[in-house]
Amino acid sequence: MRERGSYLKKHTEALVKDVGIETACTLTGRSKATLGRYYSAADEHSDRFMPVDAVAALEAEASYPHVTGALAEMRGITMSYDPTAPNSEGGVNSDVIKLSQRFALLMAEYNRSIEDGVISVNEAKRLLQETTALQKVLIEMKMHLEAND
Q1: Rounded distance, CA 25 to CA 16, Å?
Q2: Which of 47, 51, 95, 123 could anchor a disulfide with 113, C-beta 3.0 to 4.6 Å?
Q3: CA distance linking residue 87 with residue 145, whole number of Å
Q4: Alpha-carbon distances of 66 from 80, 81, 109, rounded to whole Å
Q5: Which three-class secondary structure state does DSSP give residue 29?
Q6: What is the mean pLDDT of the chain?
Q7: What share of the chain is helix, strand, coil (3-state, %, to 5)?
């Protein structure tokens, strides 16, 4: 656990420095000293970690989700980071429309790819690109549905 803790603390520090210590204090409602303890390598702070609500507040303002990325890497998960803003306009109805459009594009790409009976490397890349775009719409739709709970 010590190694994982150290890894998380390094990424917590990167997150705070990305946002800026003053901004981090404002966003989290915590003092500089408290934030410093969250990423301190000192033995007396080895069991202190930033709460998830504070991480979420900082990552919303950061250039990259440092702690989330570190957690994913620790589990062997690869994240795909899209710096563009998520679909915040509209709602579930617009998501359903986007979902059907993306699915249609995926199926069209699939039909083009299998015309000769073989899916080439470039065709597979295009299929993966369309699948990832479809996945993004599904995630946006999930966020909209969970917001309605």
Answers
A1: 9
A2: 123
A3: 13
A4: 13, 11, 34
A5: coil
A6: 88
A7: 70, 0, 30
Taking residues 119-146, what's their average pLDDT?
88
HSE-CB of 75 using CA atoms within 13 angstroms: 8
Residue 61 burial class via C-beta count within 10 angstroms: exposed 0-12, middle 13-18, buried 19 and up: middle
Would you kindly state where each structural domain of the chain is located, as residue ranges?
Answer: 2-74, 92-147
- Say whether pLDDT at 64 is over 90: no
Q: Which residue has the tokens 């999930």?
A: 142
Biggest CA pair distance of the chain: 64
- φ, ψ dihedrals at 114, nearest 5°: -95, 5
Task: Provide the sign of the torsion angle of the four alpha carbons 97, 101, 104, 110, taken in this order.
Answer: negative
Residue 110, SS3 per DSSP: helix
Q: Average pLDDT for residues 11-19, to the nearest whole number?
A: 95
